[in-house]
Design brief:
By secondary structure, this protein is mainly α. The chain has 2 domains: 274 residues, no CATH class; 243 residues, no CATH class. The protein has 21 helices and 4 strands. Helix 2 runs parallel beside helix 19 and helix 13 crosses helix 15.
């Protein structure tokens, strides 16, 4: 165990920039949400009217928290807490996989195990590292909320609840890393579990029982199947119940103990879920670099496509609901005007949901291009390029498949939007607005393809952290920037903030030509520099 401090320092140093982005970004989101709520819903009456409409349209609760009253703090946490917990969960699961299964893949774990550190110390160092990261995230959320003037007790409960969800998914990530053969498989398993549990909590709230004054909901039993639901049961700034926090933390530690037990009975590099046996003869698809990339990226593209389908359904299904809410609540109308740029309520709903869709498409693009870096660190890129495969063509294959992934996500959303209109017998003219806005998000998401590819060529070790950081920053600027009152120049830094949209006067092309120029110039530069780039060493 004498190697434990050195291993912990190595993890803290290696993740320093990423942890600052995750934790500071999450705390900043909490602070800015309060600022927005205090401006848009300055009176208890306006907050109460929103909650009453939510009770009448429980589908809204699928992506919101648990209503616990019209108080300023409780209402703000109803709007934002699920996203704070989601960020903590993603940070923790990625951290766990990176320092366990990821290190095994690149051979680093084998070298460490050959020293006096042994096999258990790295896992314990990763566990400690994850706990410290969530303590930091929780502390920064507490500071951010108290800086707004909210009460100390509710702020502490909010921060601890988000951090406790992070601890739970730290355990999920550690167990996933023991079960799956690859880091991508472990990340996929953890992410799918995360999304399933996130939606389970939302569904449990949607099926709950409203109070007689329509200001709070008693969740259904489904909520208690999800750590997100447990954390929401703390009801910050209302009941401030610490019990569910203990439950989340206990589950995280239990899963961490299970990961330790699983590691002790498997070989280094082995897994409990075996890799699927390949065919005796490869298909024709694998005869080209492009076909290989398609095979690698296909499962993740399908997953992001499902997310696009759900987003499209919600965009048109909720459009009329939000229009009706805005008719009776000028505060919501002002928010939609700020976020969607002066459109009517239904068009504004489409714009906001399809801005979220652009973020999903950008995530699909970044994940696909980042596979080039994973292939490089795993040593499989060297085998591919040892054949008569030009390295420019190799990188172009990842970029092309990423673009196809963007199209799949947008197309799935368009299909979902059409299904939503058909289900509610809506105005089919809205489908034209959906198509225009979706096409604009294709251009916006494509910027992330070339940006990630350029980082991969110039600074390969920063490919994965910087690629995802660009998406996170763009989300804050493009989706929340108008709501938080950011200056126009800051919002325009996000490709989503300058993507073409529909307005009451027609189509606003905004920065379409700049987006196209950026994609063309960035793509040409990345491919040109790749021609003379050597394979980078493992990180």
């Amino acid at each position: 165990m004498t190697a434990f401090p050195a291993l912990l320092r190595q993890r803290l140093r290696r993740d320093g920039v990423q942890l600052l982005l995750w934790t500071l970004g999450t705390a900043l989101l909490a602070y800015l949400t309060y600022v927005s709520v205090s401006q848009a819903y300055g009176t208890e009456q306006s907050r109460a009217s929103i909650l009453a409409v939510v009770m009448a349209n429980p589908v809204i609760l699928l992506f919101r928290g648990l209503p616990s009253g019209a108080g300023e703090g409780a209402f703000m946490l109803f709007l934002i807490f699920p996203f704070l917990a989601l960020l903590a969960a993603l940070m923790s699961s990625f951290l766990a996989v990176r320092h366990t299964r990821g290190d095994e893949e690149v051979g680093r774990a084998e070298l460490v195990a050959a020293t006096r550190a042994g096999r258990r110390a790295p896992l314990l160092a990763t566990l400690t590292h994850g706990v410290l990261a969530n303590v930091l995230l929780a502390s920064l959320i507490v500071v951010a909320l108290m800086a707004t003037g909210l009460g100390a007790k509710g702020s502490v409960v909010s921060g601890l609840a988000a951090g406790a969800v992070g601890l739970t998914f730290l355990g999920v990530g550690l167990v996933s890393a023991q079960l799956m053969k690859t880091s991508s498989g472990a990340n996929s398993l953890a992410t799918w579990l995360l999304m399933l549990l996130f939606l389970t909590a939302g569904l449990g709230n949607a099926l709950g029982t409203p109070s007689s004054d329509l200001q709070r909901i008693e969740s259904s039993w489904l909520t208690w199947l999800s750590p997100f639901g447990w954390a929401e049961q703390t009801r910050p700034f209302a009941e401030d119940d610490m019990g569910p926090i203990v439950l989340c933390a206990a589950l995280g530690l239990l899963l961490a103990g299970l990961a330790v037990a699983l590691q002790s009975v498997r070989d280094l590099g082995g897994s409990f879920v075996p890799e699927r046996h390949g065919r005796a003869e490869a298909s024709a698809l694998l005869s080209t670099p492009l076909g290989l990339v398609v095979r690698l990226a296909r499962p993740s593209i399908i997953g992001w496509g499902v997310g696009g389908l759900i987003t499209g359904i919600l965009a048109t299904t909720l459009a009329s609901v939000i229009r009706d809410i805005g008719t009776d609540n000028p505060a919501l109308d002002r928010i939609m005007q700020a976020m969607a740029g002066g459109t009517d309520m239904e068009q504004g709903t489409v714009v906001v949901f399809f801005t979220m869709l652009g973020i999903l498409a950008a995530c699909c693009a970044v994940q696909t291009v980042c596979r080039a870096r994973q292939e490089e660190t795993h040593g499989t890129a060297e085998l591919t390029l040892s054949a008569p495969v030009d390295r420019v063509r190799w990188l172009a294959s990842f970029a092309l498949v990423a673009f196809v992934g963007v199209l799949v996500v947008i197309a799935a959303a368009l299909a979902g939007a059409a299904a939503g209109l058909a289900a509610r017998d809506g105005d089919w003219a809205l489908l034209g607005d959906v198509a225009v806005t979706g096409a604009g998000q294709v251009a916006a998401a494509s910027v992330f393809i070339v940006a990630t590819a350029l980082v991969f060529v110039v600074a390969p070790r920063a490919t994965i952290p910087l690629g995802w950081a660009l998406v996170l920053v763009s989300m804050v600027l493009g989706l929340f920037g108008p709501l938080f009152g950011f200056p126009d120049w800051a919002v325009r830094l996000s490709p989503m903030g300058v993507a073409p949209t529909v307005t009451s006067d027609g189509v606003d092309v905004k920065g379409l030509w700049w987006l196209i120029a950026a994609v063309a110039a960035g793509g040409a530069l990345a491919l040109g520099l790749m021609r003379d780039r050597d394979l980078a060493p493992k990180n």
